[in-house]
Amino acid sequence: MIQIKLLASILSCNFLKLEEEIKDAELVGCDMLHLDIMDGHFVPNITIGPDIVRQIHKATKLKLDVHLMVENPSFWSEKFINAGAYSITVHQEADYHLNRLINSIKGKNTRALVSINPATSPILLEYILEYIDGVLIMSVNPGFGGQAFIENSLKKIEYLSKFKYLHNLEFVIQVDGGVNLDNIKSLIDAGADEIIAGSALFKVNKSEFVKKFKELTRVTI
């Protein structure tokens, strides 16, 4: 049986109660923490750096899925690996030497994923898919939480799921942005393996959300 994983995106949590929010996500059964790293250049927002990630790593048993929404990700990737990242996601749009960067991340025994923005075609990933551990489909324009899901993101998930099957590859498909209990089933049906939830998780009763998520997962598989 395929296990669909739920990743809690801390971008939407109450940062005045960060440790408490993380402990709650761990307690209710989230599989990983998703950390959005923004530099104010690649996206119009600024979040956290390696020192905060290092402290989060010490405060939780959950693996850290670090999404670098930054210019020059090759400069930052090792810093976040050293801070405790289990996964590093870099943007196709942000690095001219993507193959080299992916190999560098994987060479440090870290899961390596590539993300694409809403206007980027997954076809551009064709020659990197055999080398990576996953693709992150951004289903909103990156930078801020709480946005509405962009519906044609489903086509990207379906394309990647079919490509994976036809070429016998094993990369995971992640989805982030506008995820909620109304569209999770359609995401999984399209081929998503890892669902990233922010506002839909942290702005409601987390335990109830995870319970309903797992019910949807059982029905879908």
As a percent range, the share of helical residues equals 25-40%
Going by CATH, the architecture would be Alpha-Beta Barrel
Strand content: 15-25%
Mean pLDDT: 95
Trace the largest sheet across and list its strands.
1-2-3-4-5-6-7-8
N-to-C CA distance: 7 Å
Q: Segments where pLDDT lies below 50 for 5+ residues?
A: none
Task: Describe the protein in words.
This protein has helices at 18-28, 50-59, 73-82, 98-106, 153-166, 184-190, 199-202, 206-220, and strands spanning 5-9, 32-38, 63-69, 87-91, 111-116, 134-138, 172-176, 194-197. With 221 residues, the chain is an alpha/beta fold. It has one domain (5-220): TIM Barrel (Alpha-Beta Barrel), CATH 3.20.20.70. The protein has an 8-stranded parallel beta barrel with strand order 1-2-3-4-5-6-7-8, surrounded by 5 helices. Helix 3 (73-82) links the parallel strand 3 (63-69) and strand 4 (87-91). The model has no long low-confidence stretch (mean pLDDT 95). Its EC number is 5.1.3.1.
Describe the structure using short key phrases.
221 residues; 8 helices; globular; eight-stranded parallel β-barrel; alpha/beta; TIM Barrel; zinc; 20% strand; carbohydrate metabolism
